C-alpha cells in the first residue's frame, strides 16, 4: 500500500488560480523598486514580506533562546514570547501575528491580493523589523 499524505478537496478553478500566481512568486517582485503597476498582484511582495518577518523572528529566538520555530508558523509568536518574555511588546506580537496570518492565503491560496494590501503589510514589517533590529543590537 502506498502511503498518502493529508489532502483536501479544492473547488473547480483552484489550479488555474494557483497557476496565475505561481510565476509571479517564482520570479519575485521588486515591490519597493517601483516596478509594479496599479493592477498588479500583491501576492509575490506579500510572500517576501511574510518570509522576512519569519527570518526576523528566527533571528530573535535564536539569539535569545537558542532555537527557532519549525513548520508551524502560527506558533512563531509563542516561540518569541518564550524566548523574549516581557521584552516582546504586545504591539510587536500583534504585528507579527497579523503578518503571519497572511502566509497561507498569500502563498498557497488563489485570491490575488491587491497592492494596497501589500503596502499595508509592508508597513507592518517595517515597524516590526525596526524593533527587531534594535533588539538584536543588544
Write the layout of secondary structure elements.
Layout: H1 14-27, H2 43-65, H3 76-84, H4 90-100, H5 103-108, H6 115-137
Summarize the structure.
The chain is 62% helix and 0% strand.
Structural description of this entry:
This protein is mainly α. 62% of the residues lie in helices and 0% in strands. The chain has six helices and no strands. The protein has helices at residues 14-27, 43-65, 76-84, 90-100, 103-108, 115-137. Helix 2 runs parallel beside helix 3 and helix 4 (90-100) packs across helix 6 (115-137).
Mean pLDDT: 78
Structural class: mainly alpha
Q: What portion of the residues fall into strands of 2 or more residues?
A: under 5%
Taking pLDDT < 50 over at least 5 consecutive residues as the criterion, the unreliable ranges are 1-8
Gross morphology is: elongated
Number of helices: 6
H/E topology pattern? HHHHHH
Q: What level of helicity do the residues show?
A: 55-70%
| N→C terminal distance | 54 Å
Main sheet?
none
Measured on Cα atoms, how large is the radius of gyration?
A: 17 Å
Number of distinct beta strands: 0
